Amino acid sequence: MNMKDFSNLVGLSAHTLRYYEKIGLLRNIQRNSSGHRVYSSHDRVWIEFVKRLKDTGMPLENILIYADLRQRGSESILARQALLEQHKANLSLRIAEQQSHLAALEEKIDLYKNGKVH
Predict the structure, then answer these.
(1) Is the pLDDT of residue 68 over 90?
(2) Which residue, of 33, 43, 105, 110, has the greatest Cβ tally within 10 A?
(3) What is the 3-class SS of the chain, one letter each residue?
């Protein structure tokens, strides 16, 4: 799949895809005889996971650490698991914090609905 189609499929700009390749987040991208990038379904699955990590607030530097560990293969499984578990713990804390904020907003909205705020 060419860059335009891949970009549309994964929802990232061509600029972002080139940047990810430059910093080593996207590796071993194949090229056709004209030198244009050709993306695979494997690349799609990887980028979707990267996007999920970003969407959950994992810093790019940690995603790069994960990518480096991933390149090492099965010897790095425990390290990858530990990195993801730490991220999960951080995410759980952020979710709890957001739920607390949501509850406070709901309380305030209820005050307005019940005419108790002037």
Answers:
(1) yes
(2) 43
(3) CCHHHHHHHHCCCHHHHHHHHHHCCCCCCEECCCCCEECCHHHHHHHHHHHHHHHCCCCHHHHHHHHHHHHCHHHHHHHHHHHHHHHHHHHHHHHHHHHHHHHHHHHHHHHHHCCCCC
